[in-house]
Amino acid sequence: MATDMPTSFFGWVVFVLHQYGGALLQGAGVTLLLAIFGTFIGCIIGLLVGIVQTIPITERTNPGIKIVNKIVQFIFAAYVEIFRGTPMIVQAMVVYYGSMAVFQIDMSAMAAGFLVVSVNTGAYMAETVRGGIISIDKGQTEAAMAIGMNHIQTMCKVILPQSLKNIMPQIGNNLIINIKDTSVLNVISVTELYFVSKSAAGVYYRYFEVFFVTCVIYFIMTFIASRILRYIERRMAGSADYQLVSDPFADPTGVFPNNTPKKGGK
């Protein structure tokens, strides 16, 4: 059988694709599922934490609300610092094995993986959202409050729609990072791309060839994800041919499309 084995690098690459291509693609599918789902849930967590962290507290605020706010702020701050200050690989071990040892919860490896990616992403997104909210001019918050909006209404209808465009690059960055960082979940036996690659490489001890294929698959996934996200960013940016209205009373929206024909146009 030894004479049937490839002798060149590209021969081994073709052999690996023939023998393990399906398994590698299945592992890539698990990687994408973990990354996309974890990023989505993490963004929701980050939005909620970011909104709560920016709740305005004044001297006229009820003392009970102040106390509750400080407790919640402390909990959220601890959550952000802990999950940003520890490696995801350690978090995976703690969640997977700790769930049974401490809480007697028999959690599957996939469930632990989803949980770890989600809460880890949420910790980073919380700071991103907070920064995006702070970047919006305070006058808009004051104007919203002046017409009777509460904090939640102000966030949902005025601030977040604007800050979302600013933080969209970071959301995309987190997705790309999660596509790569899900590889650490192999320590709890999640059968994502790296786990499958390591298993395939150990059969014939051809680590270079197998992980060369793995590297290409990771690059293809991240490249496509980055291009899709850039397209979404361009769509969110809107048209480039808008200008401010010269007479604000003529159009209460404040902007209108610049339909001035170009030279030579009709």
Automatic annotation (TrEMBL):
Entry keywords, A to Z: Amino-acid transport, Cell membrane, Membrane, Transmembrane, Transmembrane helix, Transport
Presence of the UniProt keyword Acetylation in the record: no
Any one annotated GO CC term: ATP-binding cassette (ABC) transporter complex
GO process terms (BP): amino acid transport
Lipid bilayer topology: Multi-pass membrane protein
Domain ABC transmembrane type-1 positions: 28-229
Entry GO MF terms: transmembrane transporter activity
Range of residues in the leader sequence: none
Localization annotation: Cell membrane
Transmembrane segments: 32-52, 94-117, 204-226
NCBIfam families (alphabetical): HEQRo_perm_3TM
Family the UniProt entry places it in: Belongs to the binding-protein-dependent transport system permease family. HisMQ subfamily.
Name the record gives this protein: Putative lysine transport system permease protein
